[in-house]
Inverse folding.
């Protein structure tokens, strides 16, 4: 009995080691240790990136002598507290675009697993034939670097003195900010009901807002309730407008009679900075042929914005909100440095979208 | 003979309660004051005191009265005193609130647009030192002190423990302290009288390096008050490179944004639901 248990544990350990070896992409690396085709070269590079074997991945580059190793590593592992520092490369798709026998272009779709959910990154990589193997020609576009300077910021901030635990009975708090849902639209999608709209802070102080929606039967009883979660800009400065979106997966509009909306607001300390400019906004098709709203984010303050979150609302020709989409940007926003973004929207919605409005949430890590 | 003895014993038993002790409590007792319940008869036994927030049990010895400390009657309301020895006897009494010593002041709203009639309500509830509402007559002195130096006051008697006033907000934006005082106690709340919606939102532009700087004139409401700093003003520029938006907070009375311009551009401005003027500007310099 004693030997049986020991053998079973030993066998299980061997099985787990083999599984982890397969999981780490070692089999693939072994199979394509010498890249005979352009896409094999890219796969080999990405498998080494996935296993964080930076030295081997760097050695795989055709132009490694021109590529700064730290920059190369930061491309995948992130820096400045960006979302990519909280992400790992989960998987990738690779397909060749064209090749002339010496130089080829390979398109990759990198699937990252991040702290806020999956994130995809599409890149076109140049690959060149060197000796008897293909190697990746890494793009060495230099990142714009800001000259040392002082950026004056008139720091504007609200702090709140709340009712204390030791206060006597009847000592009232400061009123919650006055917020209002200015539009609401229930949209039927193939697999869900989506409630979209906008909320405005009508007060003169910042508000932390959240929108709840309840689907109701004809007799007024609730079917289910959801909230906007991260599909909203939670901190609203005075007179600021935010889009919101509440999803009800698995429900159809025919099942419900009405929707009850509930906007909750709370008085919170907040800062009016940083101001983020959204430039070059355009509705266009991306490299994969999907409709996206793209543009650039420019951080106008002097501090780094670690994780930008873009929210876009789309309006039809009557000014009604017909869709809200969002996306996290995996690069940090350095001062005055444009960073591109793209948020997708369904093709059928894109054909109706007459105009749009973009707002940016900024998450700043105080320690960075 | 046996029937006569039985009848006598029954009569004696029936007469026993009449001979037991009787309790007499004072009619008018203020919360937290010491008092005594007089006992006619034998006061030996167990004394119970049951009130709105207390229930007490103790043994008492022979005497003509039972003393009740003020700590046992801090909450106003109906009380029942019970004395049990062989039989139980009881008395009921009412404890009312003591002198007004505290105030609960509810002022609403915390922020109010300027020049709004009866927009502020201040409600003061008079309480004694044990948090009982004082239903008897008390005078509450309301006073209003604005940060720009003006002040006003008004005395208002309580009605069933509550005194209230309604106020019209001032024409000028300022921070106002509303106080209510009763006896030695004063409670204060702060109400911000804030500018209304922006009025005549107007932008102008000038070139700085290769960027177009767009800034508002001082943003004021229709009464001439500065809209508070931090209020978001949205600038939207449309040119051949696409659309550019900046949500800039007002700082020191104006909002400002810097934008690159390619070719001809149209720039508009809005704050909340208020729209401003539009600018048409030429290409980059």
């Amino acid at each position: 009995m004693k030997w049986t248990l020991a053998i079973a544990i030993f066998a299980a350990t061997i099985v787990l080691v083999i599984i982890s070896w397969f999981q780490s992409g070692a089999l693939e690396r072994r199979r394509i240790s010498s890249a005979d085709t352009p896409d094999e070269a890219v796969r080999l590079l990405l498998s080494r990136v996935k296993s964080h074997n930076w030295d081997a991945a760097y050695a795989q580059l055709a132009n490694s002598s021109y590529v700064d190793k730290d920059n190369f590593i930061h491309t995948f592992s992130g820096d400045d507290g960006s979302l990519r520092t909280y992400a790992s490369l989960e998987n990738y798709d690779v397909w060749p675009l064209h090749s002339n026998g010496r130089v080829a272009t390979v398109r990759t779709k990198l699937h990252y697993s991040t702290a806020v959910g999956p994130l995809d990154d599409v890149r076109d990589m140049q690959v060149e034939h060197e000796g008897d193997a293909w190697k990746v020609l890494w793009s060495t576009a230099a990142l714009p670097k800001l000259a040392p300077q002082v950026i004056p910021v008139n720091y504007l901030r609200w702090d709140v003195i709340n009712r204390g635990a030791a206060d006597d009975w009847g000592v009232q708090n400061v009123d919650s900010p006055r917020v209002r849902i200015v539009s609401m639209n229930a949209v039927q999608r193939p697999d869900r009901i989506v409630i979209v709209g906008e909320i405005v802070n009508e007060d003169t102080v910042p508000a932390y807002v959240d929108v709840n929606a309840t689907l109701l039967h004809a007799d007024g009883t609730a079917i289910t309730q959801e909230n906007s979660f991260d599909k909203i800009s939670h901190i609203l400065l005075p007179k600021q407008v935010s889009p919101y979106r509440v999803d009800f997966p698995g429900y159809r509009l025919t099942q419900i009679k009405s929707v009850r909306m509930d906007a909750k607001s709370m008085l919170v300390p907040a800062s009016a900075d940083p101001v983020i400019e959204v430039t070059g906004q355009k509705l266009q098709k991306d490299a994969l042929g999907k409709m996206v709203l793209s543009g650039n984010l420019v951080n106008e303050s002097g501090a780094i914005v670690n994780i930008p979150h873009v929210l876009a609302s789309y309006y039809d020709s009557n000014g009604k909100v017909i869709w809200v989409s969002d996306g996290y940007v995996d690069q940090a926003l350095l001062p005055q440095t444009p960073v591109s973004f793209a948020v997708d929207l369904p093709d059928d919605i894109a054909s109706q979208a007459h105009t749009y409005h973009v707002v940016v949430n900024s998450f700043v890590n105080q320690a960075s | 003979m046996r029937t006569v003895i039985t009848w006598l014993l029954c009569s004696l038993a029936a007469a026993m309660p009449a001979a037991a002790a009787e309790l007499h409590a004072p009619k008018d007792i203020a919360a937290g004051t010491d008092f005594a319940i007089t006992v006619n008869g034998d006061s030996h036994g167990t004394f119970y005191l049951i009130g709105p927030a207390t229930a007490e049990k103790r043994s008492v010895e022979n005497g003509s009265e039972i003393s009740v400390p003020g700590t046992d009657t801090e909450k106003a309301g109906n009380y029942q005193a019970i004395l049990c020895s062989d039989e139980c006897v009881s008395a009921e009494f009412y404890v009312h609130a003591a002198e007004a010593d505290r105030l609960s002041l509810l002022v609403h709203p915390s922020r109010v647009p300027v020049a709004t009639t009866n927009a502020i309500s201040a409600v003061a509830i008079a309480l004694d030192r044990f948090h009982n509402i004082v239903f008897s007559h008390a005078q509450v002195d309301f006073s209003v002190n604005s940060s720009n130096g003006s002040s006003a006051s008004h005395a208002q008697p309580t009605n069933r423990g509550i005194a209230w006033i309604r106020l019209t907000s001032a024409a000028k934006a300022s921070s106002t302290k509303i106080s209510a005082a009763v006896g030695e106690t004063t409670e204060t709340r702060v109400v911000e009288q804030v500018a209304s919606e922006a009025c005549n939102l107007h932008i102008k532009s000038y070139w700085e390096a290769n960027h177009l700087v767009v800034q508002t004139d001082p943003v004021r409401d229709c009464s001439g008050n500065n809209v508070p700093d931090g209020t978001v003003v949205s600038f939207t520029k449309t040119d051949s490179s696409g659309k550019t938006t900046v949500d800039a907070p007002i700082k020191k009375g104006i909002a400002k944004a810097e934008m690159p311009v390619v070719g001809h551009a149209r720039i508009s401005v809005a704050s909340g639901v208020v729209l401003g003027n539009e600018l048409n500007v030429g290409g980059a310099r």
About this structure: Chain B is about 5% helix and 55% strand.
